[in-house]
């Protein structure tokens, strides 16, 4: 019988919260005053943005730890966090394009928030691309950590750009500026996607560690000739 692991518990809890939060976002929360029903995409769009940046931040921290310790597990955690962050980053851009089409009338605009979010995706995808070209584990871990630290520069830029520059994208809301019935489903989905992300990162870390062990399996010793028979 398979053991029920802690990360599976996070995954199932996340799925349950996502179902509840999505239901509340679609059928309980009121429509937004100006955007109407299309605003309901916020209940997945915003959590994807939050958790995606959390994944990149975790990757940044673990990259520093990896450079300090040179332990394979920390390198594996960097890789898992980046991969999950990229998935959420891609979902963020897709959802944002759908929302932009309904509110701005275009699928894409080179707005500062959209542009920096796209650059963020490309930077971290570049980290994984560079990683795939390096065979030696020690060099691969070092290059991954260094490029992750460099790529992370764009993460705070994505978050603060709407406050620093004029942007079509709205500034981050707060619980005081939205209807209380909108706050609960947003928070539920934020925790839901966070728990699912933790589950996925844990799974990817295990897979990366399995890859590391496979790369470092000792070659089997050569068989000695039997009975004193010598090779000619």
Brief rundown of the structure:
It contains 7 helices and no strands. It has a single domain, classed as Four Helix Bundle (Hemerythrin (Met), subunit A) (Up-down Bundle). With 232 residues, it is an all-alpha fold.
What does this structure look like?
The chain has seven helices and no strands. The protein is globular, with a radius of gyration of 23 Å. With 232 residues, the protein is mainly α. Helix content is 71%, strand content 0%. The longest helix is centred in the last third of the chain and has 36 residues, at 180-215. Helix 2 packs across helix 5 (137-151), helix 3 runs parallel beside helix 5 (137-151) and helix 4 runs antiparallel to helix 6 (154-164). The protein has helices at residues 6-27, 42-69, 72-103, 112-132, 137-151, 154-164, 180-215. It has one domain: Up-down Bundle (Four Helix Bundle (Hemerythrin (Met), subunit A)), CATH 1.20.120. The protein starts with 5 loop residues before the first helix and ends in a 17-residue tail after the last helix.
